[in-house]
Amino acid sequence: MLGCYFLYVSALVVWRGGLWSYRTAVALLIPAGLFVLAQVERRSGRRGWSIVRDWVPAALVLVAYWSVDWAPNPHLDYSLEQAFVRWDRLLLNDWGLHAGTERLGATLPSILEAAYLLLYAALPIVIAAFYLRHERDRVDDFLFPFLVGTLTTYALLPHFPTEGPRFVFAGQDLPGVDTVLRRINLWVLDHGDIRASVFPSGHVAVGFSCAFAMWIAVPGHRALGWALLAGAVLVWITTIYGRYHYAADGLASLAITATAIGLIVPVRALVARLRR
Question: pLDDT (tens digit, 9 = 90+) per residue, 15-29?
């Protein structure tokens, strides 16, 4: 899945830029490297190479996210942002999301920002959890649907150039409570986030993809999936309350990841039926 995604990125870079660049080379080298790793693992038979393969996606998912900036699309107007912010203000003001979040002072805002910050470690934590539970054989069952949901969302980002509300509507609708965790999240976003687009939300996609993929990988332990789903919802709320994203960004990510991952089950059933 990662190999296909980076081949897509390389084609998009060439199509948008019309020139061969180091970014195209990187996007092509990654699938080649993954192919070599698979061949080495298959031929050597050593467990160490298999373990490396388990952990490579944790690093490459971040590279995949940054690669959205490699093929920028001209941002011609702010029509999407103007439409999205109206829905946000309905949620924040008329429906009380802003006031409700701050009803207990810094408590709920801190919880939300903590959930958002922990998202960066979600994939390594989940992979490690499979190892700790002695269920390493199910890592692939988790990684494939996770990557399907996450990378499908990433692939759409370059086609919807949008800027986040904290840039387009600077100083407006901001949280009334400042926390240390919010300052950390802002620093991370200022130094490591993409700028090509915020629709659909890559952060929310990771959260929901983790939850849905866990339900597929470990169907007998639904509590794990529900816990990850709760974390994904907290991340989505944080993106709205903290003005990192518009509510529509997270809603789109939920729809995309649910659809993409949801198709895996019937497709697998069909393939199994055809093999009989």
Answer: 877 666 777 778 888
What does the angle CA 88 – CA 92 – CA 238 come to, to the nearest 5 degrees? 80
Strand intervals (E) in the chain: none
Break the chain into its structural domains and give their ranges: 1-71, 77-275
Alpha-carbon span 99 to 92, nearest angstrom:
8
pLDDT in tens, 66-86: 999 888 788 778 999 999 999
Are the CB atoms for 199 and 248 separated by under 8 Å? yes
d(CA 212, CA 222): 10
Tokens of 184: 């950390």
Please count the other Cβ atoms lying within 10 Å of the Cβ belonging to residue 87.
Answer: 14
CA angle 102/105/110 to nearest 5° reads 85
- Please give the pLDDT value at position 258: 95
CA distance 263 to 257: 10
Q: pTM here?
A: 0.92
φ, ψ at 167 (rounded to 5°): -100, -50
Tens digits of residue pLDDT in 1-11:
888 999 899 88
Cis-peptide, bond into residue 57, ω within 30° of zero: no
